[in-house]
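Narrative of accomplishments. A recurring question from our advisory board has been how the design workflow behaves on a single, concrete structure rather than in aggregate. To address it, we present the structure tokens for one chain from the evaluation set, followed by the sequence designed for it. No filtering or post-editing was applied between the two.
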């Protein structure tokens, strides 16, 4: 009896430390694979688009290339164009617009070369159809609204190229809003122009993304947006206290608005542990924190691959299915995993599409 009890205690300790017998690990991996057959998995933020169109860049160097996405069982990936913030001059605004448009066309051209394998998605219906057809789907977007400048009509230019999400700012304020990391406060949230930008994004059907934005900007977005807002790649401030992460009150506000927090995989956002110790378990601590705080219907994943994302056990998108293994180990149900992997963000996207249709019908 003592030997049995000792064995039980040892196994319990190993499980708690993340070590599982190979047979149990294989069973969880098999179960995860079957779940991924049935659910739609979406990664709402990468910086991969710019890497994919770099001349001579090998796919082996790119974390969220199509091959890795397929291996990791990711069905839809957001490929926004990142634009760094520069001084707010007309010259810089024009240059950033030309830069973003050219690169968005470039990644679209790349995707179009493989129509049997992948396509640009413009709606939830497109994402769902691609899943049924066994194709990857990609959502175009902007990380930083700087290229819009002070000409709100440019939003339509990006929308016509497939843009369905815009991260309003990056690390410094722009014409639209204040950033969480800028040392200067410009507007105490959205600028007057920024409020019009959010309204026009609603009308067009573009997701309002508050990752990188200040708390005041987040509050303004919730107040002025007719559709739920999201954080496409953020983590929990209570687990790592940096300005880019979300405090509990902010998480509550996004959830109350019907939005979703997409947890990022960057070590910089997850933990101050030594790099080798920042792994999938640490990532899932942030996921579980949000689930326990506001519910499983308000959390998802936005890795930030090719832009600072990735960690031990999740070096690239080919390892994404191991997140499912870890969440299964923690007791997540298939219903909850369906929400996490895509159900939550697709719900928000449907609401964004509905608001756009209603706004345009009332004109």
């Amino acid at each position: 009896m003592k030997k049995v009890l000792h064995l039980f205690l040892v196994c319990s300790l190993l499980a708690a430390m993340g070590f599982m017998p190979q047979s149990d690990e294989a069973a969880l991996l098999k179960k995860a694979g079957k779940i991924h057959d049935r659910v739609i998995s979406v990664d709402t933020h990468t910086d991969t688009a710019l890497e994919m169109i770099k001349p001579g860049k090998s796919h082996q160097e790119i974390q969220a290339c199509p091959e890795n996405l397929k291996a990791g069982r990711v069905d839809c990936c957001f490929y926004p164009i990142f634009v760094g913030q520069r001084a707010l001059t007309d010259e810089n605004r024009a240059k950033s617009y030309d830069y973003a448009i050219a690169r968005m066309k470039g990644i679209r051209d790349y995707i179009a070369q493989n129509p049997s394998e992948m396509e640009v998605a413009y709606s939830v219906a497109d994402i769902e159809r691609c899943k049924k057809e066994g194709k990857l789907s990609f959502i175009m977007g902007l990380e930083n609204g700087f290229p819009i400048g002070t000409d709100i009509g440019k939003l339509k230019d990006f929308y016509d190229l497939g843009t369905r999400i815009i991260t309003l700012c990056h690390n410094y304020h722009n014409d639209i809003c204040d950033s969480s990391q800028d040392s200067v406060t410009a507007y105490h949230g959205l600028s007057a122009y920024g409020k019009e930008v959010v309204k026009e994004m609603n009308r067009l059907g573009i997701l309002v993304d508050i990752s990188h934005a200040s708390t005041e900007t987040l509050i303004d977005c919730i107040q002025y947006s007719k559709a739920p807002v999201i954080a496409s790649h953020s983590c929990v401030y209570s687990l790592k206290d940096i300005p880019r992460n979300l405090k509990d009150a902010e998480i509550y506000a996004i959830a109350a608005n019907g939005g979703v927090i997409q947890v990022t995989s960057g070590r910089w956002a997850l933990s101050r542990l030594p790099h080798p110790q920042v792994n999938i378990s640490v990532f899932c601590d942030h996921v579980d924190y949000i689930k326990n705080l506001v519910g499983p219907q308000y959390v998802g994943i936005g890795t930030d691959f090719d832009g600072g994302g990735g960690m031990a056990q999740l070096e690239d998108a080919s390892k994404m299915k191991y997140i499912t293994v870890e969440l299964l180990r923690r007791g997540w149900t298939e219903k909850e995993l369906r929400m996490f992997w895509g159900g939550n963000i697709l719900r928000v996207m449907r609401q964004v599409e509905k608001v756009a249709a209603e706004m345009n019908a009332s004109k």
